[in-house]
Amino acid sequence: SDDEVATELAAAEERFAKASAEFEAATAHRDAMRAVMEQRKRLSGNYTPEEQAASVQRLYDRLNEGRRRR
After folding, report:
1. pLDDT digits (tens, 9 = 90+) for 37-61
2. What pTM, to 2 d.p., does this model score?
3. Within a 10 A sphere around the Cβ of 55, how many other Cβ atoms?
4. Which of 13, 24, 51, 53 could form a disulfide with 47 if both were Cys (CB 3.0 to 4.6 A apart)?
5. DSSP characters over 14-63
6. Domain count of the fold of the chain
């Protein structure tokens, strides 16, 4: 019946809202933990050679971007 479908739809929407909120919270937590790991790596200098090279490349890119803008 229509009532049963409406009740089921309401329950599904409630579950979806809860799952969305959990997903948002998990995403925020993951991003925070990534930031903490990055911060610790920066402080300890514990980068792999690849990460170090990528970091140096980003610095050069930023430097060159600044030069281009002048």
Report:
1. 989 888 887 788 888 888 889 999 9
2. 0.54
3. 13
4. 51
5. HHHHHHHHHHHHHHHHHHHHHHHHHHHHHHHT---HHHHHHHHHHHHHHH
6. 1
